[in-house]
Backbone:
């Protein structure tokens, strides 16, 4: 009975999540500016309802009783684990700290928008310092409450766990070390080879937004997006939101830069298909929801990097691109392939190609870890940033804070521990893709015909339909026969670029 | 202290309302069809949160204590009254009845969509009967709990009160009798006079939606709509939604019928200005919200009927209409005025002009009242409908259920007691308009210059800024010097049409 009661409680939380998710989507996509204060109050109050439910003193006894219940199915057992994790994580952090962090994060993020465009690090640092101070407190609280049981090596592990349960620095460190050892040589080889090629063409004329939008929708349909169960809208910062039953992705279009928008839509469609592919019967329970960000990002990057930038896919969609965007020489298959596989070190993470991208993440990972563990202070960030950019990518960012440590929103809002997910996602995607090709040997031919259903079925069976039934290592083991192994990503880079 | 605690409780309810309102807007404007089941679950659960708060046993003692608190301001006293009304109304109706009604209403409304287009009364009646049976139960429960104190003459009064607090059949009956006595002769005179005129011109060519939309936004701006605090979107059934801080109105455009859409936007803008004009300091409390539907509709009809279809307004906007829609002879001021003041009895309420509209409402009022009081059965509806349409408007609707008793959605969803608000709103609008003209003698000249701020200021002071501070009679008395008096509406009709 206790398990069933807990399911009812988490069903209620799931309905609150639906409301929060949709109101958040509206806030970013539809809401006029003057609506923000009222919306923030409403969202804050929904958060209070959530906390009250999770702080109900009767939950402890219910969890204890549920653990001794017999006859739970594997899904129910996994659900119980997920429920308890959510509950304990909420209890671990004092309410006053949550509020202080939310306040400091809002203030820092708000000032960042102006100070970033002013390239003003001096006034930004004093806003960022309290955020890191409070996140350190949060990390300490989480580690103290959950660390022994979950095997955190340190406070920073507690933050990684928030975004990517199952991932620890003990797993990340050797993997990132391997990338740091292998990628610089690979990068040098690739850049050297590229020197003998002309830069790919970009479109000669501006491309009307309406044409780009029609192409985006066409490609989303090719990728299995169901427009009866989701929407595509416009935002300055594209994201994937909504709920599994109603998936809302966004993009931005630029008349003078069609290249970026296209892959953005493919990327978000990957996130969306994961969400909409989750197990129908469990959507209102924690076990039915998506896993951590490392797996989530693996699906968007499977779509974007493994599928979207592959030669057979770009060849297959070239006629559609030309049909919607016109006959510019930028849109023939050869040029599209070159455009989407061009490698070049740069300052900006979100514009980075898949070869240099991991370096951007490693820089942030090492820096935020040291900040949390007290081995660095906010004041040290610019120097550490410049040194790492020089060492890892040979890029000089001195004095350019805007395109240096002020380029990302994550830290301003207190999202520390998130960055590793991007690169873990890329590695997972490569590993999953290679396992998929083993299972479907003619996958490349199918991609060339845009006969993608078998590939999506494989992802569905091995990732989407699993919800949060398995932990991260077991998911990768069952899907690919081994846990995370960066060799697959390095092989992918060698095959595509060398 | 008890009063302050109650304010906190109703603050929470207000945040739930924000969520419900915005999720409802999204459901009707943005949501893809497959999102509906999950959305319905989320909305239902928010309703459960609301009910739990209002059924908290400690509320009774808090209300009692608050009543004996001294030093409450008039706004706080009025707020206490509004809080208690909401609380007692929720307690009065058993939860099982609320659920049964919601279920029967959903079923009836769902089947109505198909059966209406099939003109199938036979299969519709058995779906409508349980809705009326349950609404009768609801009316009885409300009357039993609140009737003595609030002075309900019968169960039907309890339903009117739900939508239009302060209004009773004892107020409506003589007013509607006066309209029934006066309007048929007026109508005959007007129709007779119209016979000597040619029908007004309609546009020769289709008008692109984008042009209609640009005109709509232009007119909304003229009418003071703040696009930084609201949106205009498209829906099949236009409505006004959102929250006071973020007002969302909708419209529909038809390339071949520009006439209807234009007034629809003006109408919804009236609803919106009322909501956004409510007292800022009280928006999260019941006293800060809008009054009943009779007052709400008075604001939309002030905008549409008193202002929008007036000669000086149409003359003033004619150049804008031509600028956006083209130089068609339909768009000169004379013709616009004729188009928007053409009177013609017809079957459909929502298409009716302001002279025949009250007859549609009186028919529904008398019929639904008799159904609730047990003087008629659902099976009697078609005959009663036909008789009334013949008597009141000389229109034969026999066999045409689709454009007869199946034309409205209200009854299918259990919204009985709502219809009188439409005509009370029209009467209130005329009465308020005449009071405004007394206060601003050069109002017509100002309208001709589209210098509308003084008129909106008058509405703001006399209606919008009052929130729910006053009851209906006091509001009208303070604003116009008398309670509802249908003579103002009849004078308006005579002046405009005779």
Residues:
């Amino acid at each position: 009975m206790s398990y069933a009661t807990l399911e009812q409680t988490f069903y209620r939380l799931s309905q609150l999540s639906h409301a929060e998710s949709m109101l958040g989507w509206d806030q970013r996509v539809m809401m006029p500016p003057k609506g923000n204060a009222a919306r923030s109050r409403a969202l804050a109050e929904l958060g209070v309802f959530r906390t009250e439910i999770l702080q109900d003193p009767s939950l402890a006894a219910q969890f204890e009783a549920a653990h001794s219940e017999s006859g739970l199915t594997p899904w129910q057992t996994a659900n119980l684990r997920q429920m308890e994790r959510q509950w304990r994580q909420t209890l671990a952090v004092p309410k006053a700290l949550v509020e202080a962090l939310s306040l400091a994060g809002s203030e820092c993020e708000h000032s960042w928008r102006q100070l970033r465009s002013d390239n003003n690090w001096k006034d930004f640092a004093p806003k960022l310092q309290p955020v890191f101070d409070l996140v350190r407190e949060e990390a300490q609280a989480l580690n103290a409450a959950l660390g022994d049981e979950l095997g955190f090596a340190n406070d920073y592990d507690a933050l990684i766990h928030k975004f990517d349960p199952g991932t620890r620095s003990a797993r990340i460190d050797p993997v990132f070390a391997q990338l740091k050892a292998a990628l610089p040589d690979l990068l040098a080889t690739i850049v050297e080879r590229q020197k003998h090629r002309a830069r790919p063409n970009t479109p000669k004329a501006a491309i009307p937004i309406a044409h780009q939008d029609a192409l985006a929708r066409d490609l989303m349909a090719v990728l299995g997006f169901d427009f009866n169960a989701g929407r595509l809208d416009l935002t300055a910062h594209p994201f994937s939101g909504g709920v599994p039953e109603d998936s809302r992705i966004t993009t931005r279009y630029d008349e003078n830069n069609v290249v970026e928008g296209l892959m953005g839509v493919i990327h978000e469609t990957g996130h969306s298909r994961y969400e909409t592919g989750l197990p129908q019967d469990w959507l209102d329970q924690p076990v039915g929801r998506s896993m951590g960000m490392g797996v989530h990002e693996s699906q968007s990057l499977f779509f974007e990097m493994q599928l979207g930038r592959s030669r057979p896919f770009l060849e297959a969609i070239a006629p559609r691109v030309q049909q919607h965007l016109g006959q510019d020489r930028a849109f023939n298959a050869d040029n599209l392939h070159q455009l989407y596989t061009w490698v070049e070190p740069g300052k900006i993470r979100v514009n980075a190609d898949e070869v240099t991208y991991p370096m951007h993440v490693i820089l942030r990972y090492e820096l935020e870890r040291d900040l949390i563990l007290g081995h660095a202070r906010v004041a040290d960030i610019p120097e550490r940033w410049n040194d790492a950019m020089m060492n890892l990518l040979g890029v000089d960012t001195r004095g350019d804070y805007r395109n240096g440590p002020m380029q990302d929103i994550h830290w301003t809002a207190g999202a520390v521990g998130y960055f590793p997910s991007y690169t873990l996602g890329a590695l997972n995607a490569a590993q999953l893709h290679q396992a998929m090709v083993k299972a479907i040997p003619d996958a490349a031919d199918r991609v060339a015909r845009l006969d993608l259903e078998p590939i999506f079925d494989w992802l569905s069976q091995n990732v989407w339909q699993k919800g949060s039934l398995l932990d991260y290592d077991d998911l990768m083991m069952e899907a690919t026969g081994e846990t995370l192994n960066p060799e697959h990503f390095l092989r992918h880079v060698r095959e595509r670029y060398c």
Remarks:
- Chain B has two domains: 1-72, 94-498.
